Protein: Citrate synthase
Amino acid sequence: PKTLKERLSELVPEKQEEIKNIKKEHGAKSLGNVTVDMAYGGMRGIKGLIWEGSVLDPDEGIRFRGYTINECRELLPKADDGEEPLPEGLLWLLITGEIPSKEQVQALSAEFAARSAIPSFVEDLIDRCPNTLHPMSQFSLAVTALQHDSNFAKAYQTGVNKNEYWLYLYEDAMDLISKLPNVAGRIYRNVYKDGKVPPIEPDRDYSYNLAKILGYSDNKEFVELLRLYLTIHSDHEGGNVSAHTTRLVGSALSDPFLAFSAALNGLAGPLHGLANQEVVRWIFHMKDVIGESPSDETVKEYVWNTLKSGKVVPGYGHAVLRKTDPRYTAQRDFALKHLPNDPLFKLVSQLYNIVPGVLLEHGRTKNPWPNVDAHSGVLLQYYGLVEQNYYTVLFGVSRSLGVLSQLIWDRALGFPIERPKSYSSALIRKMFEGQ
Ligand code: FAM
Structure:
């Protein structure tokens, strides 16, 4: 069977041709109007990006290359000992648009393991971080430092032809994804354990190896959870902060390490990826205030108190989604199967029954339903990975799959440097009030 790079090499010229034709046929057509409100409102609703790997429907949620999460769970290859999809297969799907064979996925697992070592100076850098430095900051600086060995940056310096950019970008993307378990695992072991990092096993899958580095691979269910987790957090179309940042920074021809570390800094924000940490913190605080098994009434009051004190309810709401996030539902399915009687899961379920009603009554948020972050923490807690400040690192490992897949295509398709136009408020007034 073909390797991912071989298949991609066949697809690149086809896709280049397709885009040329799309631009010729439809290039002058409008994707919609841009209003002054949109310019002030975080560009919400402006259709101004092309993103091949996934499209987010407000009601149905994400589809990866046209496949829903449930379809991916069914169709993507599984490990011999598992039922959840292997994220290696999702990467193949995101890059090619095709469902890979089990053999092809196994080859990717082996490739990731083979490329997984990180330079000793990056190990030293991580080891020298104080435990009080947030894991996401350590993650970001380690990924920046991996830039040292960027194939793309080197090729650019030696004056490679731009038609070949994507080949080097591909190598960097594969290197970066492969090295993330060693980076993320080292941070975890340093901050929360004794600093000893076990080796990657060359014949195991990516999620198993990540679980092993973290110290949880003896639990098969946890490995399964990671397979699901890494699959569903990978990509959420192009406009979210981490995806758009990767695209934006990469468009300056900064290499993938620089682009992805910038994305991690965005993912570390509480309105984006840090929300999974915030959800657990908020639920623990709730338990402290109203007890382990509170009545619906007291939960409702706690939610109202959060809103009245001018804070967001973490894990609820979304800029695009208008229904329950299918990534939430997939994790809920997992919990119903593996931990139906867990008290924390019961609290999360109780919140699911109560929060949307409160948010609707509050009347501000456009989407009262839970997003992916409302559920991920409780699953990790159950298996003993209780350090919630670490959770966004796992989100980051997964997000690499989506954003780097697209970055390969950005260069293969010759997308230009991003540079939208901005106006000042004075100019807006001049334009519409004629002053
Ligand atoms: N709790 C309280 N208020 C909320 C809210 C929530 N969960 N979600 C939205 N609002 C407020 C929002 O702050 C805004 O208030 P103002 O009018 O006072 O400015 C108003 O409702 C309208 O906002 P919106 O249009 O519904 O949402 P946005 O598109 O501006 O923002 C989110 C989207 C996700 C940033 C927002 O819903 C939020 O802050 N949620 C909580 C944090 C969270 O869970 N983030 C994770 C998102 C996730 F899926 C991810 O990136 N991983």
